Amino acid sequence: MAFNRDISIMLLRATGRDLRVADAMTATGSRAVRIANEVKGTEVVANDYSADAIPYIQANIEMNSLSNCRASNKDLHILFTEESFDYVDLDPFGSPVPFLQSAIRGCRKGGILAITATDTAPLAGAHAPKCRRRYQSEPVRGYMCHEGGLRILMCTVARELAKLDRGMKPLLSFYADHYLRTYVQVQDKVEDADRMLEQLGYMEYNTETLDRSTSKHYDEAHKYGPFWLGPLHDQEFLSKFRAEGMATEKRCNKYLDLWRNELDTEVFVYDMSELSSHLKRSPPKLVDFIDLLKTNGKASMTHMSPTSFKTDLSVQQVKDLYLELTPDRK
Ligand SMILES: C[S@@+](CC[C@H](N)C(=O)[O-])C[C@H]1O[C@@H](n2cnc3c(N)ncnc32)[C@H](O)[C@@H]1O
After folding, report:
1. Does the beta carbon of 179 sit less than 6 angstroms from any atom of ligand 1?
2. Terminus of the chain with fewer CB atoms < 10 Å: N or C?
3. Can you give the pLDDT at residue 266?
4. Best substitution site from 4, 49, 100, 180 to test ligand 1's pocket, by max atoms within 8 Å of Cβ?
């Protein structure tokens, strides 16, 4: 989880603020201790409801001689009725859904929610009934399944925030190492909540034709979702992230580069393998194809997979350009 924690450190440093931090499900306290150690101006509560976790958390705090980190042995539902924080981290085994309302209540005005979901299989459509139950959303299968899962998670956070008249601004959202994670800044105006809800919607994805589109409303074609259709990241905020000195510096830089250049279209990722099997032509190099797409519109790599890309061109244009670059050699 070093990469995951490195991202939290970069993000918290990028806020440039003094912060009260709750690592609500801290286990051994590794993330909490790193934050207290590495982010100036933080006051950290390392919480876990398991009594067995507390000696490990205490030992980690003492080993690092930290005066700005304290162990807490509470059910997070109780912690967040008693205290509030500028940054709330939820890192459960599986789905964060049972904890979202409490986390929101424990998050101060303008605070940041950091939410992990490791139940990637339901969210990515491998267990659709479970996704329908947990997230009340219809997952999309195929090459866009991880983006779909991420956007279902974000939609769920948005719907929970809306119940309390709050909105959200996504700061950074990603899929890596089989988990999904989103960092959102909570907004406190009713208008923010309304604007946020306008960014939820449905997807069409036809595996026969590769046609895909979004709609604010459910219909026979747009049967997947609802998803968050707004941006995944805040580019201005991302520009403040610094990877120097991170444990996984090289990987951080690779992802930062991908996130900063990722096209944030409503329409989900395409994949070279998808085009290759649909058009029955071996895939060209992704970089060459993206260069060609860019001469006709916008295009970028994505962090979701090394073979996927995003573009604002139509499906037909994408297919035509793919065929142009991969002439039939028969
Ligand atoms: C996946 S682990 C957390 C890993 C940790 N964040 C890390 O980076 O190493 C989930 C933890 O949540 C704790 N937990 C589960 N339900 C909780 C609750 N309602 N309140 C507080 N902690 C809880 C578990 O005891 C477990 O240690």
Report:
1. no
2. C
3. 83
4. 49
HSE at residue 124, side-chain half, CA atoms within 13 A, is 17
Residue 46 near ligand 1, beta carbon < 6 Å = no
| Distances from the Cα of 263 to the Cα of 96, 203, 317, angstroms | 27, 18, 17
Is the pLDDT reported for residue 14 higher than 70?
A: yes
| d(CA 31, ligand 1 centre) in Å | 12
- 2-261: CATH superfamily: Vaccinia Virus protein VP39 (3.40.50.150)
Give the whole-angstrom CA distance, residue 122 versus residue 273: 23
Reported as a single tens digit per residue, the pLDDT across 114-165 is 999 999 999 999 999 999 999 999 999 999 999 999 999 999 999 999 999 9
Per-residue model confidence as pLDDT tens digits over 16-36: 999 999 999 999 999 999 999
